[in-house]
Specification:
The structure is a single chain. The protein is α/β, with parallel strands linked by helices. It is built from 14 helices and nine strands. Strand 1, helix 1 and strand 2 form a beta-alpha-beta unit.
Amino acid sequence: MKIGFIGLGTMGAHFATNLQKAGHDLIVHDLSRRIAETHLEKGAEWAPSPRALAEVSDVIMTSLPGPVEIQAVALEPDNGLLAGISEGSVYFDLSTNSPTLIRHIYQVFAEHGAHVLDAPVSGGPRGAKSGKLAIWVGGDEAVFNAHRTCLDAMGDQVKYIGPIGAGAVAKLVHNSAGYTIQAAIAEVFTTGVKAGVPPLALWDAIRQGARGRVRTFDSLADHFLVNNYDPPNFALKLAHKDISLACELGREMEVPMRLVNLAQQEMREALNRGWGHRDSRSFLLLQQERAGVRVEEKPEDVAAVLALDPAGKG
């Protein structure tokens, strides 16, 4: 099986190297042949354009900066992948991409008998190099299963998520949550430091607390995913008291705490609904109302996911 790889940047170079280590025949392309020298020295072939690469590849992978570059590489009329794609070929986009764009590319390629799957990654350059990487795949499951070994050569946590675009959605949810959480941590941490606690001592303390000891997204399992906020582990009225004290400290220290104040307002709205006796996470129901979705999975199914992961609660 010949794999065509486009995008030998910070992440893509490691992906291509690991594919070669796994014994795959590689055809590569980038803006400059010089970027590909390391892989060419190890036996990869050079393709002068995405079209030329598609013409000789069974499986195609791209690792590109974003939607603008992906659209150009995939759909450029004369030299894009589509111009050289063959019926039955498979295209994995490893980039962080727009779900709307990848769904469009999927439809266009399907008209030519080719398959498209979105397969964004999480793990950063270190994970790309070591192979300790999550790859979240959206597209036709049968095609994913038939070509999974290609992805296993690059990551140790390869998961099929759902139809085309599902991988891209998962990646955007993950990244936006991460940056928002970091912003909130920066708010409260600067408040703590300004209130007189040395940074190292504060960090050492909070990382041993309840939130520090659990993986970020595992906390969704207890109440949010199963839609059960009664009886409470910790009552909303008590959580509101705690966050109100934190906001008060921020005002005393003259530290802006926009995200924490927003969380306090969410809790206040939930208290006004009469939810003070419910679990502290019950205010998350407000966002479900605004989004027009209901999140509810069977407890046994949630437990099964945790049990599959040795680093999780199971």
